[in-house]
């Protein structure tokens, strides 16, 4: 359930200019071992931050949120013909194909040793942890109930960013973020009956690991293009995902249908790769905390896709919730950090 291209390709492969005063971004493009030589010079280099540059970053973050909003419906489709472990492992293995091909074709050198710990966090959080935990939860949870995770994720990511990077968003930012989170959580819980169960625990843990993965990915995207961040994370997790896929395929029932295949393909290409490319690049440009608040709109987009793709009925409170969430997003985007 819990997902142009030219814009992603152009901006994603360009090397980010280090943020002034940020010790984590002091490495120049020429020094960065994870940067292909072709990206160090030439027209691909990003220009100094301007309104247009920020707008482009905002657009990429929005595209990432749109891609992620299709994740839960696509997962539901995948579960119609495959077991949960098969869905999770196959999506990661398949996503590694375009990511690895791009890394090989552009002869990208492996990242420096100091970046691998962060890449491991990305792999554990967004390649393995979040997909697995949410997929297991979706065996018994509805899309509206799982939207609780997405409602909390922006706040959790902003908090994680404040701890990890030292970012200090304004009080207005935090108030608007909290209000938006409460609105979305209240809506989702009300729709699901508000009864905590096993799926709630899985979703809560998924929230924490995903927030950590987003934060590290956004930080790393200041050192290397966003597509390389998720690309190396997928490559790092490949031994686990290949072995996991083999075991899952031998242990779980498999009934391939058009919807199950389409669901897994979208999870691999849209959610796991292209969505992450746009998302990490967008976070690198406009900031982790600011970008994370755009995800307040993700549960509502997921509900829309659930109606169109899964045949679920749109709750009556959805329009009012949408307006409240959009108002909160507008405040967080205008608040000065």
List the helices and strands and how they pair.
Layout: H1 5-13, H2 51-69, H3 71-79, H4 84-105, H5 116-137, H6 143-165, H7 171-192, H8 198-220, H9 226-251, H10 258-286, H11 288-292, H12 298-310, H13 318-334
Helix pairs in contact: 1-10, 2-10, 2-12, 3-10, 3-12, 4-5, 4-9, 4-10, 5-8, 5-9, 6-7, 6-8, 6-12, 7-13, 8-10, 9-10
How many helices does DSSP assign? 13
Question: Which residues sit in consecutive blocks of at least 5 with pLDDT less than 50?
Answer: 1-48
Apparent shape: globular
Order of helices and strands: HHHHHHHHHHHHH
| Major sheet details | none
- Please tell me how large the radius of gyration is: 19 Å
The average pLDDT score comes to 80
Distance between the termini: 33 Å
Number of domains: 1
The proportion of residues forming helix, as a percent range, comes to: over 70%
**By helix and strand content, what is the structural category?**
mainly alpha
Subcellular location: Membrane
Protein name: DMT family transporter
Family: Belongs to the EamA transporter family.
Membrane topology: Multi-pass membrane protein
How would you describe this structure to a colleague?
This protein is mostly helical and 337 residues long. The chain has one domain (5-18, 26-334). Helices cover 71% and strands 0% of the residues. It contains 13 helices and no strands. The chain has helices at 5-13, 51-69, 71-79, 84-105, 116-137, 143-165, 171-192, 198-220, 226-251, 258-286, 288-292, 298-310, 318-334. Helix 3 (71-79) runs antiparallel to helix 10 (258-286), helix 6 packs antiparallel against helix 7 and helix 9 (226-251) runs antiparallel to helix 10. The longest helix is centred in the last third of the chain and has 29 residues, at 258-286. The chain is globular, with a radius of gyration of 19 Å. InterPro entries: AA-Vitamin_Transporters, EamA_dom, EmrE-like. Keywords: Membrane, Transmembrane, Transmembrane helix. Residues 18-39 have a biased composition (Low complexity). Residues 56-185, 200-331 form the EamA domain.
């Amino acid at each position: 359930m819990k997902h142009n291209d030219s814009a992603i390709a152009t901006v994603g492969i360009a090397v980010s200019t280090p943020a002034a005063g940020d010790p984590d971004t002091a490495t120049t493009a020429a020094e960065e071992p994870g940067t292909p030589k072709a990206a160090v010079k030439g027209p691909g280099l990003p220009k100094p931050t301007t309104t247009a540059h920020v707008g482009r970053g905002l657009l990429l973050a929005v595209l990432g949120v749109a891609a992620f909003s299709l994740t839960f419906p696509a997962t539901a489709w995948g579960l119609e013909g495959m077991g949960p472990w098969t869905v999770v492992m196959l999506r990661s293995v398949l996503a590694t194909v375009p990511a690895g091909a791009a890394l090989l074709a552009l002869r990208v050198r492996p990242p420096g040793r100091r970046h691998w710990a962060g890449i491991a966090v990305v792999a554990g959080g967004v390649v393995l942890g979040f997909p697995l935990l949410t997929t297991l939860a979706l065996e018994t949870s509805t899309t509206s109930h799982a939207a609780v995770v997405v409602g909390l994720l922006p706040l959790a990511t902003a908090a994680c960013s404040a701890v990890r990077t030292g970012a200090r968003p304004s009080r207005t930012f935090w108030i608007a973020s909290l209000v938006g989170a409460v609105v979305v959580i209240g809506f989702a819980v009300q729709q699901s009956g508000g009864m905590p169960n096993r799926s709630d625990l899985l979703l809560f843990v998924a929230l924490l690991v995903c927030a950590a993965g987003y934060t590290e990915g956004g930080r790393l995207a200041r050192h290397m293009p966003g597509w390389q961040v998720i690309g190396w994370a997928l490559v790092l997790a490949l031994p686990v995902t290949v072995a996991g896929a083999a075991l899952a395929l031998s242990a779980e029932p498999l009934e391939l249908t058009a919807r199950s295949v389409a669901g897994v393909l979208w999870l691999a290409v849209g959610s796991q790769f292209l969505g992450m490319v746009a998302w990490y690049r967008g976070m690198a440009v406009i900031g982790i905390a600011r970008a994370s608040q755009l995800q307040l709109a993700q549960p509502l987009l997921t509900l829309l896709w659930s109606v169109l793709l899964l045949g679920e009925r749109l709750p009556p409170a959805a329009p009012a919730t949408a307006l409240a969430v959009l108002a909160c997003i507008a405040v967080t985007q205008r608040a000065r950090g």
